[in-house]
Amino acid sequence: MTASVFVGTSVDGFIARQNGDLDWLPVGGGELHGYDEFIATVDTIVIGRKTFETVRSFEAWPYGKKRVVVLSSHRVDLSAAAARGGVVEHMCGSPPEIVANLAASGAQNLYVDGGITIQRFLRANLIDRLVITRVPVLIGDGIPLFGSLPQDIRLRHVVTRSYPSGLVQSEYEVGAARS
Fold this sequence. Notes:
The chain is α/β, with parallel strands linked by helices and 179 residues long. It has one domain (2-19, 32-174): Dihydrofolate Reductase, subunit A (3-Layer(aba) Sandwich). It is 21% helix and 31% strand. The protein has helices spanning 35-40, 49-56, 79-83, 95-104, 115-123, and strands spanning 2-10, 14-16, 44-48, 67-71, 87-91, 109-113, 129-135, 143-144, 155-162, 168-174. Strands 5-4-3-6-1-7-10-9 form an eight-stranded mixed β-sheet. Helix 3 (79-83) links the parallel strand 4 and strand 5 (87-91). The longest helix has 10 residues, at 95-104. It is globular, with a radius of gyration of 16 Å. The protein starts with a strand and ends in a 5-residue tail after the last strand. The mean pLDDT is 91.
């Protein structure tokens, strides 16, 4: 099984404002950044509860018929997402337990999203690939992509792409991930 992250950050490393707002992200514009190609390789999306609450408020359900697993130690109301055509389920446990349960159910390629969820999976050495798109804006404060780590995590640079809008996307293989 592989687990990948595809995420946008401000240049100062934040994925959202403290209140979860994403108003600093560029809106549309027709510039393609590889998300469609990335999501086509994924069979299961693993997101935290706060990210799910943000996504569920979008006008359109962004994941189509992809399996979405919402992680939370509390009950999560999945009905609104399911009513919009989402294939959504709730799961709790440590990242290794979640990965084992998903593997047992046939999942092969995970998309891990949400600040705390990404951090927990990184700390557990369960992320294989990071695709980070930096948006040319400084927001000064917010929810960081990365938190404290018990040890260094070595990354191998794969490629960096720049876009006319000023976005810069770097892809890395995570050296500490399991084989």
